[in-house]
Design goal:
heterodimer; A: 113 residues; mainly beta; 6-stranded mixed sheet; 58% strand; B: mainly beta; 4-stranded antiparallel sheet
């Protein structure tokens, strides 16, 4: 069974600080997605990374896919209260002969003004 | 507007009283699925459907039923709800299982 471990589980920081959250596995994934879930809403896709070593930037958010396609990180520069939410990673893999998306348990980020 | 809708958004019920949570998408997606989200356990897939009349169990299917009679609708049925099914439920859709998932707004269910 493919598993994705996210760390830290909880993170509370002040506005303006930088942070990195991690998504790790012992399995190889063909691609990896990052979602953000705001309170009272469903998760929304932020980015998909496909190639080992790939780096994608979305304004103040930088996503990296590990060279071996087993891990990923999300770095936020100068965090703002609007970044508050649950960040989920999801890896695309194969289980039982079928393609399947495996979700991590998430990192709950709180950015205090 | 492309979206996944769920109803109801909030539901409080009692043990054993059958209920249905509806899910509908307007993006012509083939793949639909149901998840439950619990603190410390993350998103767990309940059932999924690759297409009309094709459904299969996810990771936590016990106590749930689904049907896919039309492409756009994928209702979740709890025939005899129990307190351990108290949770936040999400419906999701996409073109393929590993593509971007479009999630509904969630249904918060409490079973007393």
């Amino acid at each position: 069974t493919q598993l994705l471990e996210q760390s830290p589980q909880f993170l509370s920081i002040q506005e303006g600080e930088n942070l990195t959250v991690y998504c790790n596995s012992s399995s190889v994934f063909s691609s990896l997605q990052w979602y953000r879930q705001e309170p009272g809403e469903g998760p929304v896709l932020l980015v998909t990374v496909v190639t080992g070593g790939e780096v994608k930037k979305l304004k103040r958010l930088t996503f990296q896919f590990g060279d071996a396609r087993k891990d990923s990180s999300l770095h936020i520069t100068a965090a703002q209260p609007g970044d508050t939410g649950l960040y989920l990673c999801a890896g695309a893999g194969t289980q039982g002969g079928s393609e399947k998306l495996v979700f991590g348990k998430g990192t709950k980020l709180t950015v205090n003004p | 507007e492309a979206q996944v809708t769920q109803n109801p958004r909030y539901l409080i019920t009692v043990t054993g009283k059958k209920l249905t949570v509806t899910c509908s998408q307007n993006m012509n997606h083939e793949y639909m699925s149901w998840y439950r989200q619990d603190p410390g356990l993350g998103l767990r897939q309940i059932y999924y459907s690759m297409n009309v009349e094709v459904t299969d169990k996810g990771d936590v299917p016990e106590g749930y039923k689904v049907s896919r009679k039309e492409k756009r609708n994928f209702p979740l049925i709890l025939e005899s709800p129990s307190p351990n099914q108290t949770s936040l439920y999400f419906c999701a859709s996409s073109f393929f299982p590993v593509n971007e998932q479009f999630f509904g707004p969630g249904t918060r269910l409490t079973v007393l």
